[in-house]
Structures are given as structure tokens and as C-alpha cells.
Amino acid sequence: MSLNDQLAEELYRCLRERRTVSPLSARHPELTIEDAYAISLGLLERRLGDGETVVGKKIGATSKAVQDMLGISQPDFGLLTDWMQCGEDVDIAAKALIQPRAEAEIAFILKDGLGGPGVTAADVIKATEAIVPCFEIVDSRIHDWKIGIVDTIADNASCGVFVLGDTRADPRAHDLPGLHVTVTKNGAPLSEGYGSAVQGDPAQAVAWLANTLGAHGVTLNAGDIILSGSLVPLEPAAKGDLFEMTLHGVGSCTARFV
Known about the structure:
By secondary structure, the chain is α+β, with helices and mostly antiparallel strands. Helices cover 27% and strands 30% of the residues.
């Protein structure tokens, strides 16, 4: 078994057993970003073997603050499965969450596929059926979130689960960079942000994803759910917490941790 396969198995066992490990990058400094994506695919293969199916993709590390923390200059990506999608009640134990953090995002639901290179933000808007207010609950199988870029990519871009709001909106009816989100935690104001926090325009972030995946022969598919990146800082979540977000002019989303 190769090192990449061993590490994919290790992360898979951590997911299923709700435990963390020390950073992969500290133990194996020779690992490259290409290795990290190979490990992530190995992790995904094991999840698909358990009966999960891919329903979309997520973009991570979209803000400059997170990129500076990870020492990178571009986002990363992971894959979403049906098992990761939750209703507004997020069962921490049932979804094997270890150290979850909530972030408010705009999700894109595609009606047409997209394949790079050459995809533009305008192409993304044309291919999108609807935008949806969304909470991504990020999580890490790496102890105390001590992650570098290799660690988060290998761990499926630190994805945990996600919650979609009930409202579907036509992206052509909105100025996506200008969309304003406000977030509360347990009824108290927590954070706010704008669509422009995501690479200047959430549709541009999705175009980046389509072009990056296209270089590897992978497409965004009709029906895919695409999480475009957080509009606000990540916030730790624990059992009993209630998060509510309003994407003004679009709709709302609730995540209740049980």
C-alpha cells in the first residue's frame, strides 16, 4: 500500500471513528499538493464504497485571511456526497462531527454542466438554475485544526456537512457580489459579509473551480450543488447552538446542532 493510500485509510478511519490525528504535513513534509488531492480521492473512494454518492463540489480557502494562514494564493476544493447533506437539525454524533465550525455561504445549483478551461463568471450564471443560502459545517480530522494546505486538501477540503435553505432564487435577478448576509448565533448577532468576500464574486469562484477541475478532465455536472465559499469568518459550533443566516433579498437558512 502506498503512503497516499495509507493516509487515505487513516483519514477514513478517523471520520468513521470520530477522532483526530496529528497533521499529515508534519509527519510527512515531502507530501505535495498533488499527493494531497490523491489522498482526498482515496478517502472519497472509501466513502463511495459505503454507499455514498457524489452530489456536488465545494470551494475552500476563498478568503485572503484563510489563504494567508495556509500559505497559498488560490482556493482549494473538495467533493460533496449525499450523506453530507443535512436538514436544519445537524446531529453532531450521527454525522461524525468532531470539531465543527459553521460558515455562511451561497450555494449554486446547476442546470447545465460546465467544463474548463475558459469558463467565465457569466457562463456560471447562465448554467445556474438557482442560488440558495447555505451553511457549510466545516470539520477537520486533524488535531486542533492545526492544518496546512496539504492537510486540508487531503481531508476533503475540511468538509463536514452542509445545510441548504428552503429558498431558491434566480442568480440573474441579483448582484451577487453585493448580496449581504447577516448571521446570528443563539439569537445574538455574530457576523455579516457580502458576496464580494468570495474571490470578488461567488460566480467567479465557481468559474475558477470549473477551470481547475477541467485541467484534470473533470466537469461540473447538471444538478451539482456547488458551495462557493464563506462570506463570513468561521465560528465554532457545539451541541445546543442555533445558527441563523439571512441572505438579504434571497432567503434564510438555519442550522441547529443537536
